[in-house]
Amino acid sequence: MAQDNDTDDKPAQRISGRARIILLVAALVLVVGGAFWFAYHQMRGKYYEETNDAEIRADMVTVAPRIAGYVSQVLVSDNQDVKAGQPLLRIDARDYEARQAQADAQIAVARAAADNVRATISEQLATIDQTRAQLAQARAKAAYDAAEVARYAPLVETGAEKREQLAQLRATATQSAAQVRAQEAALAVQQRRVGTLESQIRQSDAQAQGARAQRASANVDVNATLVRAASDGRIGDKTVTMGQFVQPGMRLMSIVPLDKIYVVANFKETQLGLIRPGQPATISVDALGGTELHGKVASIMPGTGAQFSILPPENATGNFTKIVQRVPVRIELDASPEARRLLVPGLSVTATVDTISARDAGARIKDAQARTAAKAN
């Protein structure tokens, strides 16, 4: 019986020894794995900052009309891809075309009035030339009559000529002088009339210029009846229908530029110390089954998300509770066209930023602060 018991104890001892070896190997694996993990964490792992408070965004373009009117035609549908300059909808242009025609008519009237005044000025200049010729004749006659009076006056004094003849000559000279003054006055009136007519031309030209400005404005409005896409993208949030009356600035649809999507990741303030623009980032997209995309940090918002909210928090009321703030970080994506077709704004992602390039930033900041404090002392 004792021999049987010894025989039974030997397998148990062998099992215990084997379990002990397994435990030792497992412990060794754990220790080595832990050491490797600790070394990796110290050298690389601790420099990865990750957040799942991130989403894909795009700078969407709101499509709104410049003019008011009834929509006569909608040329796109929901979720349709469009190119920059592609027509999206058309507004009834008849009212604006009528204003265009009215401006054309005003331009024609102003031009006709200016041409009529120019013709009148030409006639007036011819009349002025004729009056000047008559004035020259009147002056010549007045000079002759004055010379005759001067010649006859001594003869009358000597009795060689009759006084009646001298009186008649003086009357004729007076009449000639009056004729000269009348012609001069007529010439002055005619010259002033030319100035008045020229001012009428300037007025007509100004009216024509105003009509041309109205015509240009009408052209802009007519062109604005055809609403075009401002950029490449995909139509979304389309609310406009044919026959709808629209106003300037009314939101009709949006264009989402899917080739310009980016990620906004809201990192905690405790994670922000080493994040810098230009650092590489990895984006895990939930919608793609965790597929990882690559990108880089583009910029960091100059304030927390709360500071840019409609009602920023006011902590001076005495009811302060400290919570960790988050700062939005913009990450530009380096994604293939196939991936971009599947990514749309609003999708949740997980963003990881490699901050190892700034690992010495904290030490540099402390050194700079110490030097500043030393100078201050």
UniProtKB/TrEMBL annotation:
Stored Pfam families: Beta-barrel_AAEA (PF25963), BSH_RND (PF25917)
Transmembrane segments annotated in the record for this chain: 21-40
GO biological process: transmembrane transport
Domain Multidrug resistance protein MdtA-like barrel-sandwich hybrid span(s) in chain numbering: 60-255
Domain p-hydroxybenzoic acid efflux pump subunit AaeA-like beta-barrel: 261-353
Domain of life according to the entry: Bacteria
Coiled-coil blocks: none
InterPro entries for this protein: AaeA-lik-b-barrel (IPR058634), MdtA-like_BSH (IPR058625), MFP (IPR050739)
Keyword set, alphabetical order: Membrane, Transmembrane, Transmembrane helix
Name assigned to this protein: HlyD family secretion protein
Origin species: Sphingobium nicotianae
